[in-house]
Amino acid sequence: MARVATEPLRAMLAEAFPDASELDVEDRTGTGDHFQVIVTSARFAGLSLVEQHRLVYDALAAPLADGTIHELRIKTKGTA
Amino acid sequence: MSASELSEHIKQVIEGEDVALFMKGTPQMVMCGNSMRALEALRRAGAPVTTVDILPDPAIRQELSALSGWPTIPQVFIRGELLGGADIVEELEQTGELERRLEEKLGAGYRNGRDEKTVSVISF
After folding, report:
1. CB contact under 8 A, A75 and B87
2. pLDDT of residue B124 exceeding 70
3. Cβ of B34 and A74 within 8 Å?
């Protein structure tokens, strides 16, 4: 059930962060519109948190724009 | 009011206030958990917060996101610079980085500044 909602988002993130050592998408409320994503990637190294979160927003631009994602919590970590 | 006037008002708040928090609701009646998380983190850091409620008109959020390039609410700015949304503000507060940045931008005495206030961008 939860996978139905999280799988497309996970695929978008995997495409944007092919090197990610950690990539998790959680449907926080079980309603398919409130998500928590965790991404650990070398792409974040040396970037500010704003820049890191912008990359995540860019990767999920379509579901953010069309309202699929009502709320998004982001946790990013850079690896050297 | 035209979209460009609204955008100009938003810009004035972002650039003119020490710490601007664009949120859903007001500190007296917060309408969203994430806006509450950002407000509480800023309070813990002793930030002199100026809040703007984006709910009265959907155009506020549209123009704000067009200016900042940030798609979600809340949004926090320190002296014109985007600090981030609720997750970032909370994370920076927990590591002590938020207080460091406030000191760097506003000076060591920033905690002695004025209290929380609320402004409107649609009835200037």
Report:
1. yes
2. no
3. no
Closest partner CB to A53 (pick from B34, B84, B92): B84
pLDDT of A1 higher than 50 = no
Distance CA B96, CA B90 (A): 10
pLDDT tens digits, A15-65: 999 999 999 999 999 999 999 999 999 999 999 999 999 999 999 999 999
Contact A54 B87 (CB under 8 A): no
> Out of B69, B72, B84, whose CB is closest to A49?
B84
Q: Which domains, from first to last, does chain B contain?
A: 3-114 (3.40.30.10)
Determine contact, residues A21/A79, Cβ cutoff 8 Å: yes
Q: What's the domain range around A63?
A: 2-78
Q: Which ranges of chain A would DSSP assign to H, the alpha helix?
A: 2-16, 49-59, 61-65
Q: Which CATH number is A58's domain given?
A: 3.30.300.90
